[in-house]
Write a structure and sequence with these properties.
With 336 residues, this protein is an alpha/beta fold. Helix content is 53%, strand content 13%. It is globular. The protein starts with a helix and ends with a helix. Bound molecules: hypoxanthine and zinc ion.
Amino acid sequence: MSSDLASFVAGLPKAELHLHLEGTLEPELKFALAARNGIELAEKTVEEVRATYDFTDLTSFLAVYYPAMQVLQTADDFHDLAWAYLERAHADGVVHVEMFFDPQAHTSRGVPFVDVIGGYRRAVVRAERELGISAELILCFLRDFSAEHAMSTLMEALPYRSWIVGVGLDSDERDNPPAKFQAVFARAKQEGFLTTMHCDIDQVGSIDNIRSVLDEIGVDRIDHGTNIVEDPALVALAKERGLGFTTCPISNSFVTEQMKSDEIVQLLREGLRVTVNSDDPAYFGGYIADNYVALAEKAGLDRADLAQLAINSFEASWLTPARRAEYIARVREFAG
Ligand code: HPA
Ligand code: ZN
């Protein structure tokens, strides 16, 4: 990697919009939390943990991802997880972040909702004060749980609505199409939440799910979603709506054969609001700057392209127009 490229990317002010807090659990922190909570882990070394990260698709990733979360037990654990990520993101030039969390992965194990959100919120406030990063939380429903479970989770979240900017949908897309959650997302919108949904890469029926997310759900953003290139009419519609796409090149190369750089760059060149993000950096071995660099090297992007990706990250963010404009001015000033 050219050190010029790496330092340009690290200095570029950017927003991260596709980041699962539970996906930032590094093996070292996993061991520390296990020790603190008296949990015995099957793996004894960091290397042994990393050796289990042999993913071939989304399902095989999720089979490792959820069991690891058992070490997260108390509000302090959630705070420490988010804080470690925020410090790491700060080092990568992230100035604004909208972070997913999966409350059902914890409440279904008996962890109270308030401990999950309380711990995360403490890290959000601390990041603003100590790092100058603005951070928001996006509550993600697990799509392999029932729509009723999602609705009751939404109800449980209402007392904390001022701490949650929007709702999303993640986990296993197979047999769990967007329409399953139509009522939940309609209610979330009524309650004032912004909305996004994962449209994972190369799923059975990816393009139908993307169409449904645009037509039936009416989301404000799409996570991943690059299979949209299969239907030029949908690409045109997404462009007209100014819809943001939160792509994750390194994650793509773990759950499919490739980074999907051709699709990402095609959408960027067509003028869609494509952004670059890290998804689950502890599992896929790359934080946001690594993702910018990996994509740039693979697709031959220049500094102007990278600056455009950073501008897109603010345009697709859920900041106010005035804050977006401030950050975009900072990108332009940095990139020259
Ligand atoms: N897709 C679906 N579920 C997830 C992901 C993802 O990229 N990351 C964490 N949970
Ligand atoms: Zn994701």
